[in-house]
Write the structure tokens for this entry.
Amino acid sequence: MSNPYKIPAPSIISFSGGRTSGYMLYKILDAYNGVLPEDIYVAFANTGKEAPETLDFVKDVEDKWDIKIYWLEHYFGEEKPIHRTKEVTYKTASRNGEPFERLLEQRGKLPNGFCAL
């Protein structure tokens, strides 16, 4: 029986910084004996609205499990496509909701079409 956590490469793992997401990442890492293949990437999408403890947890996972986590934030570019992503770090990550607020200002509504302001 194959291990369901041994995902095919190349892959991107979206790590939210929550406990369940951390557990999933742990199980995937364990399936590879603690070392992810070079073409499996872990991404954390920072909205700037996360609790400080969430950012600390993402950083701790990165450090203690010795894996590269790509800290990403949305921004608007000058030309199409205007929706862009930039890489940040634990130190430079927005902490006051800037990426999310800019998105709300630009779109005039929440990103999820099923939610109302």
